[in-house]
From TrEMBL:
Function comment: Catalyzes the formation of acetyl phosphate from acetate and ATP. Can also catalyze the reverse reaction.
Annotated Mg(2+) binding sites: N15, E391
UniProt name for this protein: Acetate kinase
Binding-site list for ATP: K22, H215, L216, G217, N218, G219, D289, M290, R291, G337, V338, G339, E340, N341
UniProt pathway annotation: Metabolic intermediate biosynthesis; acetyl-CoA biosynthesis; acetyl-CoA from acetate: step 1/2
EC number, UniProt record: 2.7.2.1
Coiled coil: none
SUPFAM superfamilies from the UniProt entry: Actin-like ATPase domain
Active site residues according to the UniProt entry: D155
Gene: ackA
NCBIfam families membership: ackA (TIGR00016)
Localization, UniProt: Cytoplasm
Length: 407
Protein backbone atom coordinates (compact mmCIF):
# COMPACT_ATOMS: atom_id res chain seq x y z
CA UNK A 1 0.00 0.00 0.00
CA UNK A 2 1.31 3.49 -0.79
CA UNK A 3 0.58 6.85 0.79
CA UNK A 4 -1.73 7.62 -2.12
CA UNK A 5 -3.83 4.55 -1.41
CA UNK A 6 -7.25 5.87 -0.35
CA UNK A 7 -7.95 2.95 2.02
CA UNK A 8 -7.93 4.19 5.62
CA UNK A 9 -5.20 2.32 7.43
CA UNK A 10 -4.91 3.90 10.87
CA UNK A 11 -6.11 2.11 13.97
CA UNK A 12 -6.48 3.69 17.39
CA UNK A 13 -5.95 1.15 20.19
CA UNK A 14 -7.60 1.97 23.51
CA UNK A 15 -6.95 0.23 26.80
CA UNK A 16 -9.42 1.73 29.25
CA UNK A 17 -9.02 1.18 32.98
CA UNK A 18 -11.25 2.50 35.74
CA UNK A 19 -9.28 5.75 36.07
CA UNK A 20 -6.92 5.59 33.10
CA UNK A 21 -6.78 5.28 29.33
CA UNK A 22 -3.72 4.05 27.48
CA UNK A 23 -3.71 4.63 23.75
CA UNK A 24 -1.67 4.08 20.64
CA UNK A 25 -2.31 5.20 17.09
CA UNK A 26 -0.83 2.90 14.47
CA UNK A 27 -0.70 2.95 10.70
CA UNK A 28 -1.33 -0.62 9.64
CA UNK A 29 -0.04 0.00 6.12
CA UNK A 30 3.41 -0.55 7.65
CA UNK A 31 2.54 -1.32 11.30
CA UNK A 32 4.17 1.99 12.30
CA UNK A 33 3.33 3.63 15.59
CA UNK A 34 2.29 7.25 15.06
CA UNK A 35 1.60 8.28 18.66
CA UNK A 36 1.40 6.73 22.10
CA UNK A 37 0.06 8.08 25.34
CA UNK A 38 -1.66 7.72 28.64
CA UNK A 39 -4.28 9.58 30.63
CA UNK A 40 -4.24 8.74 34.32
CA UNK A 41 -6.06 9.72 37.50
CA UNK A 42 -9.25 10.46 35.52
CA UNK A 43 -11.89 11.99 37.82
CA UNK A 44 -9.30 13.50 40.15
CA UNK A 45 -7.94 17.04 40.42
CA UNK A 46 -4.49 15.82 39.46
CA UNK A 47 -5.26 14.06 36.17
CA UNK A 48 -2.34 13.79 33.78
CA UNK A 49 -2.08 13.25 30.05
CA UNK A 50 1.27 12.21 28.63
CA UNK A 51 1.34 12.25 24.84
CA UNK A 52 4.27 11.17 22.70
CA UNK A 53 4.07 11.84 18.97
CA UNK A 54 6.30 9.46 17.05
CA UNK A 55 6.15 11.31 13.74
CA UNK A 56 8.31 14.18 15.03
CA UNK A 57 7.90 16.62 17.88
CA UNK A 58 8.39 16.35 21.61
CA UNK A 59 6.57 14.48 24.32
CA UNK A 60 3.86 16.65 25.90
CA UNK A 61 2.41 16.52 29.37
CA UNK A 62 -0.84 18.12 30.53
CA UNK A 63 -1.91 18.23 34.15
CA UNK A 64 -5.18 19.35 35.70
CA UNK A 65 -8.61 17.88 36.27
CA UNK A 66 -10.03 15.57 33.59
CA UNK A 67 -13.55 14.75 34.78
CA UNK A 68 -14.33 11.50 33.00
CA UNK A 69 -13.45 9.18 30.14
CA UNK A 70 -15.27 11.38 27.62
CA UNK A 71 -13.15 14.37 28.63
CA UNK A 72 -10.03 12.18 28.53
CA UNK A 73 -10.68 10.99 25.01
CA UNK A 74 -11.50 14.52 23.88
CA UNK A 75 -8.15 15.67 25.27
CA UNK A 76 -6.38 12.79 23.52
CA UNK A 77 -8.12 13.71 20.27
CA UNK A 78 -6.96 17.32 20.63
CA UNK A 79 -3.38 16.23 21.23
CA UNK A 80 -3.49 13.93 18.20
CA UNK A 81 -4.95 16.77 16.11
CA UNK A 82 -1.95 18.97 16.94
CA UNK A 83 0.20 16.38 15.17
CA UNK A 84 -2.17 16.22 12.20
CA UNK A 85 -3.49 12.86 13.44
CA UNK A 86 -6.93 13.91 14.65
CA UNK A 87 -9.55 11.26 15.29
CA UNK A 88 -11.87 12.97 12.79
CA UNK A 89 -9.41 11.99 10.04
CA UNK A 90 -10.78 9.86 7.19
CA UNK A 91 -7.58 7.85 7.48
CA UNK A 92 -8.78 6.30 10.71
CA UNK A 93 -10.07 2.82 9.84
CA UNK A 94 -11.23 1.60 13.24
CA UNK A 95 -10.82 1.78 16.98
CA UNK A 96 -9.62 -1.41 18.67
CA UNK A 97 -10.50 -1.88 22.34
CA UNK A 98 -8.80 -4.17 24.79
CA UNK A 99 -11.64 -5.92 26.61
CA UNK A 100 -10.52 -8.02 29.55
CA UNK A 101 -13.30 -10.59 29.84
CA UNK A 102 -15.04 -12.13 26.86
CA UNK A 103 -16.24 -15.26 28.63
CA UNK A 104 -16.77 -18.28 26.41
CA UNK A 105 -18.68 -16.51 23.69
CA UNK A 106 -15.88 -14.44 22.21
CA UNK A 107 -13.05 -16.53 20.82
CA UNK A 108 -12.03 -13.93 18.24
CA UNK A 109 -11.97 -10.16 17.79
CA UNK A 110 -15.49 -8.89 17.32
CA UNK A 111 -17.05 -5.81 15.77
CA UNK A 112 -18.96 -4.14 18.60
CA UNK A 113 -22.73 -4.06 18.27
CA UNK A 114 -25.37 -3.48 20.95
CA UNK A 115 -25.63 -7.28 21.33
CA UNK A 116 -21.88 -7.52 21.93
CA UNK A 117 -22.10 -4.71 24.49
CA UNK A 118 -24.90 -6.56 26.29
CA UNK A 119 -22.73 -9.67 26.53
CA UNK A 120 -19.71 -7.70 27.84
CA UNK A 121 -22.13 -6.23 30.38
CA UNK A 122 -23.40 -9.71 31.34
CA UNK A 123 -19.80 -10.65 32.14
CA UNK A 124 -19.36 -7.85 34.69
CA UNK A 125 -19.93 -10.23 37.65
CA UNK A 126 -16.83 -12.25 36.63
CA UNK A 127 -14.75 -9.14 35.82
CA UNK A 128 -16.10 -6.47 38.18
CA UNK A 129 -13.04 -4.23 37.97
CA UNK A 130 -12.22 -4.48 34.30
CA UNK A 131 -15.31 -4.88 32.13
CA UNK A 132 -17.12 -1.74 33.41
CA UNK A 133 -14.07 0.37 32.54
CA UNK A 134 -13.86 -1.24 29.11
CA UNK A 135 -17.56 -0.53 28.53
CA UNK A 136 -17.06 3.13 29.45
CA UNK A 137 -14.12 3.36 27.04
CA UNK A 138 -16.14 1.85 24.20
CA UNK A 139 -19.18 4.07 24.80
CA UNK A 140 -16.97 7.15 24.85
CA UNK A 141 -15.21 6.20 21.62
CA UNK A 142 -18.55 5.41 19.98
CA UNK A 143 -19.85 8.87 20.83
CA UNK A 144 -16.71 10.44 19.37
CA UNK A 145 -16.82 8.52 16.08
CA UNK A 146 -20.24 6.83 15.73
CA UNK A 147 -19.53 6.13 12.06
CA UNK A 148 -16.40 4.08 12.73
CA UNK A 149 -16.13 0.33 13.34
CA UNK A 150 -15.21 -0.35 16.95
CA UNK A 151 -13.64 -3.73 17.59
CA UNK A 152 -13.31 -5.61 20.87
CA UNK A 153 -10.18 -7.73 21.31
CA UNK A 154 -10.59 -9.96 24.34
CA UNK A 155 -7.89 -10.94 26.82
CA UNK A 156 -9.61 -14.28 27.25
CA UNK A 157 -10.09 -15.13 23.55
CA UNK A 158 -6.84 -17.04 22.98
CA UNK A 159 -7.65 -19.33 25.91
CA UNK A 160 -11.12 -20.39 24.75
CA UNK A 161 -9.46 -23.38 23.05
CA UNK A 162 -8.55 -24.89 26.42
CA UNK A 163 -10.04 -28.37 26.72
CA UNK A 164 -12.73 -28.87 29.35
CA UNK A 165 -10.39 -30.89 31.57
CA UNK A 166 -8.07 -27.87 31.80
CA UNK A 167 -10.80 -25.23 32.02
CA UNK A 168 -13.07 -26.77 34.65
CA UNK A 169 -12.53 -26.57 38.38
CA UNK A 170 -13.29 -29.78 40.24
CA UNK A 171 -16.38 -28.37 41.93
CA UNK A 172 -20.08 -29.18 41.65
CA UNK A 173 -20.94 -28.81 37.96
CA UNK A 174 -24.39 -27.27 38.45
CA UNK A 175 -23.07 -24.61 40.81
CA UNK A 176 -20.16 -23.86 38.48
CA UNK A 177 -22.39 -23.56 35.42
CA UNK A 178 -25.02 -21.48 37.17
CA UNK A 179 -22.40 -18.86 38.03
CA UNK A 180 -20.10 -19.24 35.01
CA UNK A 181 -17.30 -20.48 37.26
CA UNK A 182 -14.46 -21.91 35.18
CA UNK A 183 -10.94 -21.05 34.17
CA UNK A 184 -10.89 -18.37 31.46
CA UNK A 185 -7.27 -17.17 31.50
CA UNK A 186 -6.05 -13.64 30.71
CA UNK A 187 -3.15 -11.90 28.92
CA UNK A 188 -4.39 -13.85 25.88
CA UNK A 189 -3.39 -11.19 23.35
CA UNK A 190 0.17 -11.38 24.65
CA UNK A 191 0.26 -15.19 24.75
CA UNK A 192 -1.05 -15.31 21.17
CA UNK A 193 1.46 -12.77 19.90
CA UNK A 194 4.46 -14.18 21.75
CA UNK A 195 3.78 -17.81 20.86
CA UNK A 196 3.54 -16.82 17.18
CA UNK A 197 6.68 -14.67 17.34
CA UNK A 198 8.53 -17.53 19.04
CA UNK A 199 7.65 -19.86 16.16
CA UNK A 200 8.90 -17.18 13.76
CA UNK A 201 12.16 -16.95 15.71
CA UNK A 202 12.59 -20.71 15.30
CA UNK A 203 11.89 -20.38 11.57
CA UNK A 204 8.75 -22.50 11.86
CA UNK A 205 5.03 -22.19 11.41
CA UNK A 206 3.13 -21.85 14.74
CA UNK A 207 1.32 -25.11 13.92
CA UNK A 208 4.66 -26.95 14.08
CA UNK A 209 5.80 -25.93 17.55
CA UNK A 210 4.86 -26.37 21.20
CA UNK A 211 5.67 -23.35 23.35
CA UNK A 212 5.48 -22.51 27.03
CA UNK A 213 4.92 -18.74 27.25
CA UNK A 214 5.85 -17.01 30.51
CA UNK A 215 4.28 -13.55 30.60
CA UNK A 216 6.01 -12.04 33.64
CA UNK A 217 4.95 -8.46 34.24
CA UNK A 218 3.37 -6.94 37.31
CA UNK A 219 0.59 -9.39 36.52
CA UNK A 220 2.03 -12.75 35.47
CA UNK A 221 0.74 -15.83 33.70
CA UNK A 222 2.03 -18.93 31.95
CA UNK A 223 0.46 -20.76 29.05
CA UNK A 224 0.95 -24.06 27.26
CA UNK A 225 0.52 -23.61 23.50
CA UNK A 226 0.39 -26.69 21.27
CA UNK A 227 0.75 -25.98 17.56
CA UNK A 228 -0.46 -22.40 17.99
CA UNK A 229 -3.44 -23.44 20.14
CA UNK A 230 -3.66 -22.70 23.86
CA UNK A 231 -4.24 -25.88 25.88
CA UNK A 232 -3.71 -24.54 29.39
CA UNK A 233 -3.01 -21.29 31.19
CA UNK A 234 -2.31 -20.34 34.77
CA UNK A 235 -4.88 -17.58 35.40
CA UNK A 236 -8.42 -18.76 36.09
CA UNK A 237 -11.86 -17.27 36.74
CA UNK A 238 -9.96 -14.07 37.51
CA UNK A 239 -6.31 -13.02 37.12
CA UNK A 240 -5.62 -14.06 40.74
CA UNK A 241 -4.76 -17.70 40.06
CA UNK A 242 -1.36 -19.07 39.13
CA UNK A 243 2.07 -17.52 39.39
CA UNK A 244 3.34 -15.26 42.16
CA UNK A 245 2.82 -11.73 40.81
CA UNK A 246 3.73 -8.17 41.77
CA UNK A 247 0.82 -7.77 44.16
CA UNK A 248 -1.26 -10.98 43.68
CA UNK A 249 -0.74 -14.19 45.59
CA UNK A 250 -1.38 -16.58 42.70
CA UNK A 251 -2.25 -20.17 43.74
CA UNK A 252 -3.16 -20.85 47.32
CA UNK A 253 -5.27 -23.30 49.29
CA UNK A 254 -8.85 -21.90 49.05
CA UNK A 255 -9.23 -22.73 52.74
CA UNK A 256 -6.88 -19.80 53.46
CA UNK A 257 -9.87 -17.59 52.62
CA UNK A 258 -12.19 -19.37 55.10
CA UNK A 259 -9.43 -19.13 57.68
CA UNK A 260 -9.01 -15.40 57.13
CA UNK A 261 -12.77 -14.97 57.49
CA UNK A 262 -13.31 -17.22 60.50
CA UNK A 263 -10.09 -16.78 62.41
CA UNK A 264 -8.72 -13.39 61.34
CA UNK A 265 -12.22 -11.85 61.13
CA UNK A 266 -11.60 -10.29 57.73
CA UNK A 267 -14.43 -9.34 55.37
CA UNK A 268 -14.69 -10.63 51.81
CA UNK A 269 -13.62 -7.24 50.45
CA UNK A 270 -10.64 -7.09 52.79
CA UNK A 271 -9.53 -10.54 51.70
CA UNK A 272 -10.01 -9.57 48.05
CA UNK A 273 -7.76 -6.54 48.58
CA UNK A 274 -5.21 -8.58 50.54
CA UNK A 275 -4.87 -11.24 47.85
CA UNK A 276 -5.03 -8.94 44.81
CA UNK A 277 -3.21 -5.84 46.01
CA UNK A 278 -1.12 -6.67 49.07
CA UNK A 279 0.23 -10.14 48.31
CA UNK A 280 2.70 -11.58 45.83
CA UNK A 281 6.12 -9.93 45.85
CA UNK A 282 4.87 -6.80 47.61
CA UNK A 283 3.30 -8.88 50.38
CA UNK A 284 6.39 -11.01 50.76
CA UNK A 285 9.01 -8.28 50.86
CA UNK A 286 7.39 -4.86 50.47
CA UNK A 287 8.54 -4.32 46.87
CA UNK A 288 6.97 -5.46 43.62
CA UNK A 289 9.59 -4.08 41.26
CA UNK A 290 12.03 -6.82 40.32
CA UNK A 291 14.85 -4.25 39.90
CA UNK A 292 14.46 -3.17 43.51
CA UNK A 293 14.21 -6.76 44.73
CA UNK A 294 17.46 -7.70 42.92
CA UNK A 295 19.18 -4.61 44.35
CA UNK A 296 18.11 -5.61 47.87
CA UNK A 297 19.27 -9.19 47.32
CA UNK A 298 22.68 -7.88 46.22
CA UNK A 299 22.85 -6.01 49.54
CA UNK A 300 22.13 -9.23 51.45
CA UNK A 301 18.44 -8.61 52.22
CA UNK A 302 16.96 -11.95 53.36
CA UNK A 303 13.29 -11.03 52.89
CA UNK A 304 13.89 -9.99 49.30
CA UNK A 305 15.87 -13.21 48.71
CA UNK A 306 13.02 -15.36 50.07
CA UNK A 307 10.44 -13.49 47.97
CA UNK A 308 12.59 -14.12 44.88
CA UNK A 309 12.94 -17.82 45.75
CA UNK A 310 9.17 -18.22 46.21
CA UNK A 311 8.57 -16.45 42.89
CA UNK A 312 11.04 -18.74 41.09
CA UNK A 313 9.79 -21.92 42.79
CA UNK A 314 6.24 -21.28 41.53
CA UNK A 315 7.51 -20.42 38.06
CA UNK A 316 9.49 -23.65 37.90
CA UNK A 317 6.45 -25.66 38.97
CA UNK A 318 4.48 -24.22 36.06
CA UNK A 319 7.28 -24.88 33.58
CA UNK A 320 7.33 -28.49 34.76
CA UNK A 321 3.54 -28.79 34.71
CA UNK A 322 3.22 -27.41 31.19
CA UNK A 323 6.10 -29.56 30.00
CA UNK A 324 4.05 -32.54 31.15
CA UNK A 325 0.84 -31.16 29.61
CA UNK A 326 2.52 -30.65 26.23
CA UNK A 327 4.62 -33.85 26.27
CA UNK A 328 7.14 -32.27 23.92
CA UNK A 329 8.33 -28.68 24.20
CA UNK A 330 10.15 -26.76 21.44
CA UNK A 331 10.56 -23.46 23.25
CA UNK A 332 10.09 -21.61 26.49
CA UNK A 333 9.50 -17.88 25.86
CA UNK A 334 9.95 -15.15 28.45
CA UNK A 335 8.05 -11.90 27.97
CA UNK A 336 6.68 -8.70 29.66
CA UNK A 337 8.53 -6.37 32.06
CA UNK A 338 10.24 -9.01 34.19
CA UNK A 339 10.54 -11.68 31.50
CA UNK A 340 12.11 -9.29 29.00
CA UNK A 341 14.46 -7.52 31.38
CA UNK A 342 15.34 -9.63 34.40
CA UNK A 343 18.15 -12.00 33.36
CA UNK A 344 18.46 -13.45 36.91
CA UNK A 345 14.80 -14.55 36.81
CA UNK A 346 15.30 -16.32 33.47
CA UNK A 347 18.46 -18.00 34.68
CA UNK A 348 16.96 -19.15 37.97
CA UNK A 349 13.74 -20.39 36.35
CA UNK A 350 15.51 -23.00 34.22
CA UNK A 351 18.38 -23.78 36.58
CA UNK A 352 18.58 -27.52 37.19
CA UNK A 353 16.25 -28.38 34.31
CA UNK A 354 19.02 -29.65 31.99
CA UNK A 355 17.51 -33.15 32.08
CA UNK A 356 14.42 -31.62 30.47
CA UNK A 357 16.63 -30.11 27.76
CA UNK A 358 16.40 -26.61 29.23
CA UNK A 359 19.41 -24.35 29.76
CA UNK A 360 20.38 -20.70 29.51
CA UNK A 361 23.66 -19.38 28.09
CA UNK A 362 25.02 -16.81 30.55
CA UNK A 363 26.39 -14.45 27.89
CA UNK A 364 23.32 -14.55 25.67
CA UNK A 365 21.09 -14.10 28.69
CA UNK A 366 22.97 -10.96 29.74
CA UNK A 367 22.45 -9.20 26.39
CA UNK A 368 19.95 -6.34 26.58
CA UNK A 369 17.88 -5.90 23.45
CA UNK A 370 14.38 -5.09 22.22
CA UNK A 371 14.57 -7.84 19.61
CA UNK A 372 13.26 -11.39 19.97
CA UNK A 373 16.27 -13.58 20.72
CA UNK A 374 17.41 -17.03 21.78
CA UNK A 375 19.26 -17.31 25.08
CA UNK A 376 19.77 -21.07 25.18
CA UNK A 377 23.09 -22.71 24.26
CA UNK A 378 23.24 -24.44 20.89
CA UNK A 379 23.30 -27.90 22.45
CA UNK A 380 20.02 -27.41 24.34
CA UNK A 381 17.09 -29.52 23.11
CA UNK A 382 14.56 -26.84 24.01
CA UNK A 383 14.98 -23.26 22.82
CA UNK A 384 14.78 -20.65 25.55
CA UNK A 385 13.78 -17.28 24.12
CA UNK A 386 13.15 -13.68 25.12
CA UNK A 387 10.30 -12.36 23.00
CA UNK A 388 9.12 -8.81 23.74
CA UNK A 389 5.37 -8.67 23.80
CA UNK A 390 3.38 -6.04 21.91
CA UNK A 391 -0.26 -6.22 22.90
CA UNK A 392 -1.15 -2.93 21.19
CA UNK A 393 0.27 -4.06 17.85
CA UNK A 394 -1.59 -7.36 18.20
CA UNK A 395 -4.87 -5.56 18.99
CA UNK A 396 -4.34 -3.21 16.03
CA UNK A 397 -3.45 -6.11 13.72
CA UNK A 398 -6.52 -8.12 14.73
CA UNK A 399 -8.76 -5.04 14.51
CA UNK A 400 -7.49 -4.05 11.09
CA UNK A 401 -7.71 -7.60 9.71
CA UNK A 402 -11.32 -7.87 10.87
CA UNK A 403 -12.30 -4.51 9.41
CA UNK A 404 -10.55 -5.26 6.10
CA UNK A 405 -12.28 -8.62 5.88
CA UNK A 406 -15.59 -6.74 5.95
CA UNK A 407 -16.86 -8.90 8.84
P1 LIG B 1 4.73 -4.95 32.97
O1 LIG B 1 3.54 -5.22 33.82
O2 LIG B 1 4.91 -5.93 31.85
O3 LIG B 1 4.84 -3.51 32.52
O4 LIG B 1 6.01 -5.18 33.91
C1 LIG B 1 6.31 -4.32 34.98
C2 LIG B 1 7.34 -4.96 35.87
O5 LIG B 1 8.51 -5.31 35.10
C3 LIG B 1 7.88 -4.04 36.96
O6 LIG B 1 7.06 -4.08 38.10
C4 LIG B 1 9.25 -4.64 37.25
O7 LIG B 1 9.13 -5.66 38.24
C5 LIG B 1 9.65 -5.32 35.95
N1 LIG B 1 10.75 -4.65 35.26
C6 LIG B 1 10.68 -3.61 34.40
N2 LIG B 1 11.90 -3.26 33.97
C7 LIG B 1 12.78 -4.11 34.57
C8 LIG B 1 14.21 -4.26 34.55
N3 LIG B 1 14.99 -3.49 33.79
N4 LIG B 1 14.74 -5.26 35.30
C9 LIG B 1 13.95 -6.04 36.05
N5 LIG B 1 12.62 -5.95 36.11
C10 LIG B 1 12.04 -5.00 35.39
Amino acid sequence: MTSTDPTPSRVLVLNSGSSSVKYQLLDMADSARLAVGLVERIGEETSRLVHTPLTGGDKRELTGPIADHAAALKAVSEELAKDGLGLDSPELAAIGHRVVHGGLKFSAPTVITEEVMAEIERLVPVAPLHNPANITGIRTAQSLRPDLPQVAVFDTAFHTTMPEHAARYAIDVETADAHRIRRYGFHGTSHAYVSRETAKLLGKDPSEVNVIVLHLGNGASASAVRGGVCVDTSMGLTPLEGLVMGTRSGDLDPAVIFHLERVAGMSTDEIDTLLNKKSGLVGLCGDNDMREIRRRIDEGDQRAALAFDIYIHRLKKYIGAYYAVLGKVDAVAFTAGVGENAAPVREAAVLGLEELGLAVDGELNAVRSDAPRLISPEYARVAVAVVPTDEELEIATQTYALVRSGA
